[in-house]
Amino acid sequence: MAAYLDFENNIKQIDEEIALARIKEDSHAVEILQKNLEKEVSRTYKNLNDYQKLQLARHPDRPYALDYIRMLLSNYYEIHGDRAFKDDGAIVCYFGYLQDKKIIVIAEQKGRGTKNKLKRNFGMPNPEGYRKALRVAKLAEKFEIPILFLIDTPGAYPGIGAEERGQSEAIARNLFELSALKTRSVAVVIGEGGSGGALAIGVADRFAMMRYSVFSVISPEGCAAILWNDPTKQESATKAMRITADDLKSFNLIDSVIDEPIIGGHRDKEGAVKALGKYVIDSLNELEDSDLNTLLEKRYKKITSVGAYEE
């Protein structure tokens, strides 16, 4: 059963009418309803506010990292463990082929269903996850294989054990190491890009966001709780924080917005996968034409251009 958000109620009603018409084998009614559905989809999704885009970024039917990996890669296999503590299910690492290109994918994975959500820790990595990511990134550097980072997390796991094992150090280490990693890289926010949990695998030569993704220093709920002592003001916080893909592009904090289907990846998974795959291939082709030292210099300038400071 598809999950519908509040603002999708009209779409839900038409979908139900189409299903009923198909049961009755009324092809004429189906044809008319399909046209009505297209109009309603266009009307609804062309007028989304920031909070509705946040809801889409968190939609349970939205493609997760493993969906993209399994639909885009061939001859892939998973790389496990940080070689120090354990294998973190919230970070997945795969080697495979994207068309004819060797590639390593390092991604944050949310789970579906209670058992899988617990296995993936709801997409919130522990420090061993970030250390696994760095270990695999170093492998990519050693064998000169490009990296695709897929970002989708509400944030790094804030548990006591994670702090005891050096959560902040693991994130900081990744920022430091990835900024100078000698291989080509592309990062894409496919859902939620939450705080340091996203930044830890978000340093790359190309950084993009899917149309209905968000990228923020804190969740809107957390922001509302801090500023107004009222988590229910998350809609106001979402608007104030400017966390949508279009906002981030307007601030030059990301390179591109990937045009996933207007109805969203949760309704058109194949369309979303195709759009992301095309962006990655095009980006890697551009990066391959550039000298690695030149790319490293551009990456450094890109990082240091964020924000304002005085020496």
- What is the strand tally? 8
- The CATH topology of the largest domain, please? 2-enoyl-CoA Hydratase, Chain A, domain 1
Q: What is the total domain count?
A: 2
**Rg, please?**
20 Å
Q: What's the level 1 CATH class of the largest domain?
A: Alpha Beta
What's the overall average pLDDT, rounded?
94
Which residues form runs of ≥5 with pLDDT under 50? none
Report how far apart the termini are.
57 Å
CATH superfamily annotation of the largest domain: 2-enoyl-CoA Hydratase, Chain A, domain 1
Range of helix content: 40-55%
Regarding quaternary structure, what we see is single chain
Q: What characterizes the major β-sheet? A: 8 strands, mixed
CATH architecture of the largest domain: Alpha-Beta Complex
Along the chain, the helix and strand elements come as HHHHEEEHHEHHEHEEHHHEHH
Strand-pairing-aware structural class: alpha/beta
The percent range for strand residues is 15-25%
Structure explained in plain terms:
- The protein has 311 residues and is an alpha/beta fold.
- It has two domains: 7-47; 53-304, 2-enoyl-CoA Hydratase, Chain A, domain 1.
- 48% of the residues lie in helices and 16% in strands.
- It has helices at 9-23, 27-45, 50-57, 65-72, 114-119, 127-142, 160-164, 167-178, 195-199, 220-228, 234-241, 245-250, 269-288, 292-304; strands at residues 73-79, 91-98, 101-108, 147-153, 185-194, 206-210, 214-216, 256-258.
- Strands 1, 2, 3, 4, 5, 6, 7 and 8 form an eight-stranded mixed β-sheet that branches.
- Helix 1 packs antiparallel against helix 2 (27-45).
- The longest helix is centred in the last third of the chain and has 20 residues, at 269-288.
- The mean pLDDT is 94.
